[in-house]
Prior knowledge:
This protein is mostly beta strands and about 375 residues long. It has no helices and 29 strands. The chain is elongated and about 95 Å long.
Amino acid sequence: MKRLLSFTLFFLALTFMVNSQDAVISVNGHVTDDVTGAPIQNHLVLVSVLGGGIYQDYEFYTNDAGFYGSDSILATSQGLVRASTFDCIGEEHAQEAYFNPGNNSFVFDFEICNDSIPQGDCENWFTYETNDNITFVFYGESLPFPANYWMWDFGDGATGYGQNVTHTYDPNTGDIFIVTLTTIHTIPGTVDTCTATSTQEVLVGTGGGNCVADFDYTIDSVPTGAYVVQFTDLSIGNPTSWMWDFGDGEFSNDQNPEHIYEMQGTYYVCLTIFGDSMNNCYDTYCEEIVMGSGGIGDCENWFTYETNDNITFDFYGESLPFPANYWMWDFGDGATGYGQNVTHTYDPNTGDIFIVTLTTIHTIPGTVDTC
């Protein structure tokens, strides 16, 4: 009798940035004048999506009817969506909600003041790009264009000058910063000037606030063959909400949920935590858990990996029973390796998601059988 065990893990091997996004959500709404009710045209609304440790901003400008939004915003299976905009005096208006497979369509309407900026008939706005959420490139725009003066306040005590600027934040102070662009335009033929100000929030760092997600669990089997798992939140940083993905298509927002797995197998469980709006805390922790024998025999394996550059990876194999007699790795790019612990370097020019497979064979003592 021979039984072959294979365990597959999806992971990232990217030169720049790849995050798994496997769902879409719908976010839309109208922006109207809070006095007249008339639609406000060409007004920026920022939609931010947070889930699975991924934070992504989407910019929308209202049309002639004051409408903004999209029915196909990329997202993970569950998380937090936030829509925000600024009124005529620079005050932010924001709405947010949690999304999951059963709740993925949102309408966020805004009623704001629509007077001209008090300093004159001009305006500005800006966009930005970042590959690491540490160094940002900001691109300023203005009407009339170009402005005579551009000044940036990056929200961390630093400032910059010019239409397009680059700023690097302290990587140890992950947080949400408010960036402000101020422009001054000299009105032709006069000595008068027109001043405009716009602001946006930017997320700095790979996590928000001083919190770390973590959990533990215990497994009990029941006579029906199912497995009852009690999950315990061990997170630090005083989170105020929790989102669990149990890896079998089920979810929970309880802090310490109990979950029943109907079948043996290996499940990838993720806990995402959020803090209140004051500490801007969020983090995600994921772990594989095995029910029974993993559904594929009387032995099992799993592995972890480490990387400093998302190009070269160190893989560490484990098995039950331990040690296995044979370890074989398929790195998903056509290369293979052998041994319990291996190192593999991917081509840095082919950033992609690769499927890595570890196969182990264990000889059952006193027999000629293998597992």
